[in-house]
Write a structure and sequence with these properties.
The complex is a heterodimer of chains A (241) and B (88).
Chain A (H helix, E strand, L loop, with lengths): L5 E11 L4 E7 L11 E7 L5 E7 L8 E7 L7 H7 L5 E8 L13 E6 L3 H14 L5 E7 L8 H5 L5 E7 L16 H7 L8 E7 H13 L7 E6 L5
Parallel strand pairs in A: 7-8, 7-10, 8-9, 10-11
Antiparallel strand pairs in A: 1-2, 1-6, 2-5, 3-4, 3-6
Chain B lengths: L5 E2 L4 H5 L10 E4 L5 E3 L4 E3 L5 E4 L6 E8 L2 E5 L3 E5 L5
Antiparallel strand pairs in B: 1-4, 2-3, 2-8, 4-5, 5-6, 6-7
Classes of the chains: A alpha/beta (241), B mainly beta (88).
Chain lengths: 241, 88
């Protein structure tokens, strides 16, 4: 295996996801490929030499030397304001990766999959959904996507289109659309029982989101009888940004 | 101590500078309570001035990593042993 090095990445394309998030497509010469769920470190260096780095999940499946990140603006952050408001097509940043072999879904896996995402925690889960589609995998996926309101959805058009074998449940924590059957609120036991798989199916569960969300969802999955070694988590918190 | 923390997943990049295998998928035994956990499941506080990874069971420090100019400092005294999966 190779040692990890920083590579110069050139921004090729920008897609707006929400008012505060956008997807950045980079070309990274020498990119060795990656697996769904892995992340990269992004490093920005100022003219005076000061540098800041953050971890971002890869949003897309392996695609040659192209990679996609979806970045949410964290007000007062050091890196995300630049990536969401300043960087332009043609600009370069440094990227190191892919890293992380734990929070990973592999297309050869046969177990049903439950994805539980809170807010921008959807990003590595979307990489799994896209990798499943790209590989033509028949493994059934269920996605439970918790977010503040309808306008905060990432990949809204793509998730709206039918994807056979993928079922999606949206949980809104703040505001619900008109005549939505579920009241606004945080993830509860019934949400995971109805939108997920019975524990007897032994699904692989991937939970990603802010620390509090991940703790709550993982505890509920344990309460529903899912085995600890079938629950993989990825948290992001205040050092993001 | 802040109650907000990250997963050991964020160690993958910084440790990838040092080791040629992905150590976050290795399991480590906590020197304090004996619990065995994947490094990816440790609770990580940071990033400045360094990364501190604590046991998800007892919250004792298992690993500390500081990346300075020209060198990295890695303190593993909170881990009795690491099991690293390797091909034969």
């Amino acid at each position: 295996m190779r040692r990890l090095i920083w590579r110069a990445a050139t921004l090729l394309e920008v897609r707006e996801e929400t008012a505060t998030a956008r997807t950045l497509v980079f070309e990274v010469p020498g990119w060795p490929g990656h697996q769904a769920g892995q992340h990269v470190d992004v490093r920005l260096t100022a003219e005076d030499g000061y540098s800041a780095q953050r971890s971002y999940s890869l949003a897309g499946p392996a695609d040659g030397e192209r990679i996609e990140l979806t970045v949410e603006l964290v007000p007062d952050g050091e890196v995300s304001p630049y990536l969401t408001e300043v960087v332009e097509v043609g600009d370069q940043v440094e990227i190191r990766g892919p890293v992380g072999g734990w929070f990973v879904w592999r297309p050869e896996s046969r177990a049903p999959v439950l994805l539980v995402g809170g807010g921008s925690g959807i990003v590595p889960l979307m990489a799994m959904i896209r990798t499943r589609r790209q590989a033509g995998s028949q493994v059934p996926f269920r996605l439970i996507y918790s977010l503040r309101d309808h306008d905060r959805r990432y990949y809204a058009g793509e998730l709206h289109r039918p994807d056979p074998g993928l079922d999606i449940t949206y949980l809104y924590t703040r505001n619900v659309p008109v005549s939505w059957p579920r009241r606004a609120g945080r993830v509860m036991l019934d949400d995971l029982a109805e939108g997920g798989w019975p524990a007897t199916f032994q699904p692989d569960c991937y939970v990603c989101g802010p620390t509090g969300f991940v703790e709550a969802a993982a505890d509920l999955l344990l309460a529903l009888g899912h085995a600890p070694d079938h629950i993989r988590t990825e948290r992001f918190g205040p050092s993001g940004g | 101590m802040t109650t907000e923390y990250l997963d050991g997943n964020v160690l993958a990049g910084p440790l990838g500078e040092i080791f040629s295998v992905d150590v976050t998928t290795a399991t480590g035994r906590c020197a304090s309570c004996g619990q065995v956990a994947a490094l990816a499941s440790l609770r990580v506080y940071g990033p400045g001035p360094g990364l501190v990874a604590r046991c998800p069971g007892c919250e004792e420090v298992m690993l500390r990593l500081v990346r300075g100019p020209g060198a990295a400092w890695l303190d593993l005294r909170g881990i009795v042993s690491l099991r690293v999966a390797l091909p034969d």
